[in-house]
Amino acid sequence: MNDTLHKVTQRVIERSRPSRQAYLDLIRREGDNMGERNAVSCSNLAHAYAGALEDQPALVSGRGANIGIVTSYNDMLSAHQPYGRYPDRLKIYAREIGATAQVAGGTPAMCDGVTQGETGMELSLFSRDVIALSAAVALSHAMYDGALMLGICDKIVPGLLMGALRFGHLPAIFVPSGPMPTGIPNKEKQRVRQLYAEGKATRAELLASEMASYHSPGTCTFFGTANSNQMMMEMMGLHIPGSAFIQPGTQLRQALDREAVHRVAALGRKGDDYRPLGLCVDEKAVINAAVGLLATGGSTNHAIHLPAMARAAGVIFDWDDLSELSHAVPLIAQVYPNGSGDVNNFHNAGGMGYVIGELLEAGLAHPDILTVGRGDFSDYAREPGLEGDKLVWREVGPSMDDTMLRPVSNPFKPDGGMRLLQGNLGRACFKTSAVDESRWTIEAPCRVFEDQASVAAAFKAGELDRDVVVVVRFQGPRANGMPELHKLTPALGVLQDRGFKVALVTDGRMSGASGKVPAAIHCTPEALGGGPLARLRDGDVVRVCAVTGDLNTDADLANREPARDPIADSGTGRELFGMMRRFADGAEQGASAMLATGGM
Q1: Is the dihedral of CA 375, 378, 380, 386 positive or negative?
Q2: What is the number of H-type helices and E-type strands within the chain?
Q3: Of 242, 377, 486, 530, which one's alpha carbon is 20 to 30 angstroms from that of 583?
Q4: 418 by DSSP, 3-state: which?
Q5: How confident is residue 458, by pLDDT bands cut at 50, 70 and 90?
Q6: Angle between the N-to-C axes of helices 156-165 and 302-312, in degrees from 0 to 180, rounded to the nearest 10
Q7: Beta bridge partners of 418
Q8: How many other CB atoms are there within 10 angstroms of residue 263's CB atom?
Q9: CA-to-CA distance for 137 and 107, rounded, in angstroms?
């Protein structure tokens, strides 16, 4: 076992001891309280069985497991469109083994790609809490012996896991639907975006380019938050092994879905292989997820989501842990935007089976986590396939493309590329894996903005054609829900390509596809309420350095009055989320109102 991995794990275990024990006591008590389904009153059972005409005899007999399906289906998200037909198929797979399945409930599933730069993005982060609450409502009926969680994208998997963990006495398996086929080359997409930012491409040309990239059902193929979610579910052992990146509609995809149903039915209390979700998600599973994030150059959004998911299981994980692990975990995958190939190329080169095998071999992942598979975590170092109609797992072998995947002994970079910055401007995250090392240190006068539109206007006016640290403040969870600021990337990328030294500092988020521009993001404490960013003024020199971990200014902040807190905007439903903004905790704690007020 790697020394740093062991040290950080033990620190997390010790820090979490009281909260983890409280969580284990909770799920043990909940399991005892909910008891057997047949102990529920006959009137309650009749209500639950009334709509399940084909399965009523099996439900009444109580002999087989009844599986609750929590679905985030809608057909506005390409990744979630395939879920429309899943319930009918999953019910058939359940009947094959004498079990039953019911749709326990649905959750919202918004797309950050659709809301980028729009007011709806201010609902995005808190949609995770809404999803967790929705999942809890779905599972609150004492009708289920296990759960299948159908979700893929940005806030959806973290929300589903947070909600399901409140019912951690139940086994639960996460069921992805897989990525869409590869579209146009990612460099071409990036090229057209920058041309449009400079006024050298038309809106019609931009839309044609985007639709050639995002073109069919399935997950977007860049390695953003959605695909990082799938990677992390593999690293935590919550998928059927190798499920993450099998495309929708294939025979192999259906075989893996069938296996998920059969396995969750076997993992309940009635069987001899009880594996409740709350025991699967422990300190070591959280560390494995963090290691996977670092080894693959995954989404910066998980610097927020991972602490929140961990807290839902009583585990306290912070940015010091993530940063320390980053220094020990090498980058062994380069998936766009870190590299040129997408997740389909990654999967074809060896994918998660290769990554997990390398990490286990190097002592950089915990082999002894409890998984939902038929064996142990070593099964996740293999890849699924079909022999006739039979689902099998095979050895992965060496990387099939060393521009996508490399061994731990010869990584792309010696560290995982997620750095903690701290100083008199607070604490922030910096993703180095996609940023050229020559740009890891930027020191320049700042220009302060309070929204993305103002940055775009200043760029178009030529006001940013210089060395500059662009500060976008009042974008934290309590100010406006902590939207992603992905639309800044093309403009800042143009400035960088013109030869200027450019960096971004913000208390907001960047996309999981954060790219080549150096950025100190998720700054905490946020500007609202007098945080350090609220005291910056145009022209103050700001230093952003991923080498030394500095986030500082030479300005005398202590003797300044902070900028006035903005009034939260209404419209697009934002006023309905006022309570969540008011009670949200900091980005490093997970930026959750639910966790902050729920005693977790």
Answers
A1: negative
A2: 22, 14
A3: 486
A4: strand
A5: very high
A6: 10
A7: 431
A8: 20
A9: 10
Nearest CA to 491 among 188, 121, 199?
Answer: 199
Residue 80: exposed, middle, or buried by beta-carbon count in 10 A (0-12, 13-18, 19+)? buried
Q: Rg of the chain over CA atoms, in angstroms? A: 24
3-state secondary structure of 550: strand
Q: Which long-range contacts (CB under 8 A, 24 or more apart) does 71-76 make?
A: 71/103, 71/105, 71/106, 71/107, 71/150, 71/151, 72/106, 72/107, 72/108, 72/109, 72/131, 72/150, 72/151, 72/152, 72/156, 72/160, 73/106, 73/109, 73/150, 74/109, 76/111, 76/114
Going by the DSSP 8-state scheme, the letter that residue 179 receives in this structure is B
- Of the candidates 301, 555, 588, the one whose C-alpha atom is nearest the C-alpha of residue 448 is 555
Query: In the numeric block, which tokens belong to residue 146?
Result: 């296990």
**Using one digit for the tens of pLDDT, what is the confidence trace for 374-422?**
999 999 999 999 999 999 999 999 999 999 999 999 999 999 989 999 9
Q: What is the mean pLDDT of residues 165-172?
A: 97
- 3 state SS of 85: helix
Task: Provide the pairing of β-strand 418-423 with 441-449.
Answer: unpaired
Residue 337 has a pLDDT of 82
DSSP secondary structure letter of residue 559: G
Q: Can you give the pLDDT at residue 487?
A: 83
- Which DSSP string corresponds to 463-519? TT-SSEEEEE-S-SHHHH---B-TTHHHHHHHHHHTT--EEEEESSB--TT--SS-E
H helix or E strand, kind and range, residue 104: strand 100-106
pLDDT at 514: 61
CA dist., res. 301 & res. 51, Å (int): 40
User: Mean of the per-residue pLDDT values for the chain?
Assistant: 94
Residue with token string 């005398």: 556
Peptide bond into 337 cis (omega under 30): yes
Of the candidate ranges 32-46, 68-82, 296-310, the one whose mean pLDDT is the lowest: 32-46
* pLDDT for the residue 424: 98
* 157 touches 151 (CB < 8 A): yes
Sketch out the chain's domains with CATH numbers: 3-181+216-395 (no CATH), 187-214 (no CATH), 418-566 (3.50.30.80)
Confidence grade of residue 339 (pLDDT, cut at 50, 70, 90): confident
pLDDT score recorded for residue 402? 96
Cα 552 to its chain centre, rounded Å, is: 29
- Region of 431 please: left (phi>0), alpha (psi -120 to 50) or beta: beta
